[in-house]
């Protein structure tokens, strides 16, 4: 493995990232306690790993549809399997809480919307954070409108929850307005894990067949150059992010999430300028406490701050921190459009690629599979739409 020299690093971004993380760590420890301080460090590890491995979900889904290249998708499956090997017994035998949430019409539509939006926005939930943290001005626009879309979505969630499946669907599948299924509690951790690995393994084999049929061989994954300066191979990225997911369960007590924090930020900003967000049905119950408390008391928000700081450190160490201040109209408009769709869709669908897809699957929940199917369909539709529009 080749090791880059320290001279290749940009000092200012690395110093800034270190200062931000130190301030966040101390402030979180003083205001919210040890758990939130550790969440800062877990988020920093996530951001550092995401940036160096360029580990996103958007490009992998686009490439399997548009190019029949499946290397990115297969390493996503590695991440899921590694995390589930630990998360399933943790959730079954300890107090760690999984995300077992109902599948509904709104949830399915939100997943479709999110998948469509992420191809225009240029990144998923985690991708938006680490690319913005790494210095992308365009992704900062996406993030801003992700927050706005999340706030709007939170206002509409109660209405979407009133929409039931058609009678034909209810009678055919024996479901009501919504249904949920938890593999871990129904099957036990071992059987649930075998089912999950079997399904993902079958899909991985299919992608191998598809790629060989199209190209004659498999695309070799990128190799790791330096663990400090990057880039990393997707294998190192999958391992590091599996550690992040496991640490989230151990320290925070629940799977890693991202986008609920965007709704919280949007609601806090709206409340600050005089909007009575607290009266919205979505922000009642336990969410009212989140809205009222200091943002450093919110684990997902704290991890997100850490992700951006970790990505900033990685960009500086890789000497790639180079914000571009001149953007085209297409770049700006697609960032706005994609951010709004992702924000709105994430509220309906319980989250993004991390909270709903990864979080759902590592919890053994049927909604994780449903999210993946609908978001992938939305992603494919967006790729086809962009191709037709020439963007």
Explain what this protein looks like in three dimensions.
There is one protein chain. By secondary structure, the chain is mainly alpha-helical. It has helices at 11-31, 34-53, 58-66, 71-93, 105-121, 125-133, 137-160, 167-173, 183-187, 189-215, 234-252, 260-272, 286-292, 299-317, 329-348, 353-362, 366-389; strands at 103-104, 178-179. The chain has a two-stranded antiparallel sheet with strand order 1-2.
Blueprint (SSEs and pairs):
Layout: H1 11-31, H2 34-53, H3 58-66, H4 71-93, E1 103-104, H5 105-121, H6 125-133, H7 137-160, H8 167-173, E2 178-179, H9 183-187, H10 189-215, H11 234-252, H12 260-272, H13 286-292, H14 299-317, H15 329-348, H16 353-362, H17 366-389
Helix pairs in contact: 1-2, 1-14, 2-6, 2-11, 2-14, 3-17, 4-10, 4-11, 5-7, 5-15, 5-17, 6-7, 6-14, 7-12, 7-15, 16-17
What can be said about this structure in brief?
The chain is mainly alpha-helical and 391 residues long. It is built from 17 helices and two strands.
């Amino acid at each position: 493995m080749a090791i880059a020299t320290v001279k290749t690093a940009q000092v200012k971004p690395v110093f800034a990232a270190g200062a931000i993380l130190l301030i966040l760590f101390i402030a979180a420890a003083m205001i919210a306690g040890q758990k939130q301080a550790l969440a800062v460090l877990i988020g920093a590890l996530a951001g550092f790993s995401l940036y160096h491995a360029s580990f996103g979900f958007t490009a992998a889904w686009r490439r399997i549809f548009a190019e029949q290249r499946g290397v990115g998708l297969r390493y996503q499956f590695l991440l899921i399997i590694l995390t589930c090997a630990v998360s399933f017994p943790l959730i079954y035998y300890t107090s760690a809480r999984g995300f077992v949430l109902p599948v509904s019409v709104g949830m399915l539509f939100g997943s479709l919307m999110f998948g469509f939006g992420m191809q225009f926005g240029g990144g998923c939930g985690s991708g938006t954070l680490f690319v913005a943290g790494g210095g992308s001005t365009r992704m900062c626009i996406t993030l801003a409108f992700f927050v706005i879309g999340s706030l709007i979505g939170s206002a509409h969630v109660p209405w979407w929850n009133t929409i039931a499946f058609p009678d034909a669907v209810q009678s055919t599948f024996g479901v009501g307005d919504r249904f949920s299924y938890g593999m871990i509690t129904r099957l036990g951790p071992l059987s649930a894990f075998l089912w999950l690995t079997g399904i993902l393994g079958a899909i991985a084999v299919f992608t191998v067949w598809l790629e060989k049929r199209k190209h004659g061989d498999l695309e070799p994954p990128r190799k790791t150059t330096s663990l400090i300066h990057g880039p990393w191979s997707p294998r190192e990225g999958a391992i590091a992010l599996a550690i992040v997911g496991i640490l989230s369960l151990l320290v925070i007590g629940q799977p890693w999430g991202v986008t609920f924090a965007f709704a919280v930020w949007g609601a806090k900003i709206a409340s600050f300028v005089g909007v009575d967000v607290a009266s919205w049905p979505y922000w009642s119950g336990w969410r009212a406490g989140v809205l009222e408390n200091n943002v450093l008391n919110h684990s997902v928000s704290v991890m997100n701050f850490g992700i951006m700081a970790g990505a900033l450190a990685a960009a500086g160490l890789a000497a790639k921190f180079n914000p571009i201040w001149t953007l085209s109209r297409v770049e700006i408009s697609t960032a706005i459009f994609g951010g709004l769709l992702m924000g709105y869709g994430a509220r309906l669908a319980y989250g993004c690629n991390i909270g709903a897809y990864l979080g759902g699957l590592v919890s053994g929940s049927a909604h994780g599979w449903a999210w993946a199917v609908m978001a992938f369909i939305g992603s494919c539709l967006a790729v086809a739409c962009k191709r037709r529009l020439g963007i």
